[in-house]
């Protein structure tokens, strides 16, 4: 039986679940720009997300997981075998999902486009680190790495994929690995990360069970010396899903549009309404220089067993709420008594993201006059 096991850690919320992995990053692949054809233009939501990146309003999203290793890979002497198996598993997942194989051309313009990458150097995309010391030292390093990676920007949009991985391993306890996945929200979303971990675990299980023949997997047809050769442009163009708005109409209420146009478009910033208590009138924070940012992320980790997580979710559902709403409420209760906040803001407003995958059709039309029908499994697809 496969021996990989894990604990999902999304942002700072840990919940026992199906094993998963954490990815993080550093530099990534060298790519021939002349051989990187345009696949398609970014959609509305995709363009919005890349704008947040280029304006430095968002830097990195981090999802982390812990994997228990099979006994044969626990000894430190087998570390090279572990690295090779992990790389092969990552390669198989990447080759199955177009959004993990593309860069973004003209990211700082109004017409950004998905562009094919020729190859990815997994030796650079996946960084391994051995942490010296006991359990406390490992947890401290993990926390510092989470904070550091949350503040590390994606900048080489054209020649690098929108993800990177860091793997931490304890010198004192080699029975597990901590994996951090950092991703550009233009490429992936939270559900994509869950799918990535599940598929990665599947391939690791198959490797541990011998389902991936060792003689063949050591010479993966698209992976050589850590270099992963990606799909040709034609195959990538045919498999990259269209933007959500091409698959499902998103009607805009006329009243809402009129309000948006008057408030957000026609109103000069100097005349922007100041009588809404929930508006952050003390914003925006002006940075002296993009290279000397005086702010940094401070991430805190909460650990609780799966049984408590299930009880929390059930309690939220009884109240017609979600776990996200509960966290918003906790944050509000925590911030409200702070005099320095209350003095500047009379109210707080929270926004909750919504997963629209459930509304997207599994069968969509493509091509002139919508004559080409394609299928897309929204439960397993990666993208945003």
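Q: What amino acid sequence fits the structure above?
A:
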């Amino acid at each position: 039986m496969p021996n990989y096991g894990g604990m999902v850690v999304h942002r700072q919320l840990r919940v026992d679940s199906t094993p998963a992995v954490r990815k993080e990053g550093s530099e990534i692949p060298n790519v021939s720009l002349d051989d990187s054809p345009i696949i398609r233009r970014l959609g509305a939501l995709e363009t919005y997300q890349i704008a947040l990146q280029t304006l430095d309003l968002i830097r990195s999203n981090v999802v982390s997981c812990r994997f228990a290793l099979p006994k044969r890979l626990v000894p430190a002497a087998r570390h090279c075998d572990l690295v090779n198996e992990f790389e092969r598993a990552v390669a198989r997942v990447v080759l199955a999902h177009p959004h993990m194989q593309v860069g973004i051309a003209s990211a700082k313009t109004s017409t950004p486009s998905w562009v094919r990458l020729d190859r990815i150097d997994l030796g650079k995309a996946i960084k391994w680190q051995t942490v010296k010391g006991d359990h406390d030292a490992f947890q401290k390093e993990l926390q510092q790495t989470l904070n550091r990676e949350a503040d590390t920007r994606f900048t080489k949009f054209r020649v690098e994929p929108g993800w990177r991985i860091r793997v931490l391993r304890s010198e004192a306890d080699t029975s597990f690995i901590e994996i951090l996945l950092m991703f550009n929200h233009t490429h992936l979303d939270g559900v994509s990360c869950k799918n990535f971990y599940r598929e990665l675990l599947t391939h690791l299980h198959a490797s541990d069970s011998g389902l991936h023949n060792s003689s063949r997997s050591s010479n993966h047809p698209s992976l050589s010396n850590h270099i992963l050769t990606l799909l040709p442009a034609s195959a990538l163009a045919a498999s990259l899903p269209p933007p959500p708005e091409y698959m499902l109409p998103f009607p805009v209420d006329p009243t809402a549009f009129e309000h948006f146009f008057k408030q957000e478009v026609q109103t000069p910033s100097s005349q922007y309404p100041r009588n809404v208590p929930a508006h952050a009138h003390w914003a925006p924070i002006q940075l002296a220089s993009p290279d000397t940012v005086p702010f940094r992320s401070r991430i805190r980790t909460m650990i609780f067993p799966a049984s408590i997580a299930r009880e929390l979710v059930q309690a939220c559902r009884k109240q017609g709420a979600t776990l996200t709403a509960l966290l918003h409420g906790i944050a509000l209760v925590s911030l409200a008594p702070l005099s320095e906040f209350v003095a500047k803001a009379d109210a707080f407003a929270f926004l909750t993201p919504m997963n629209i995958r459930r509304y997207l059709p599994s069968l969509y039309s493509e091509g002139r006059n919508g004559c080409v029908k394609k299928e897309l499994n929204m439960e397993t697809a990666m993208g945003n």
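Q: And what stands out in the fold?
A: The chain has a mean pLDDT of 79.
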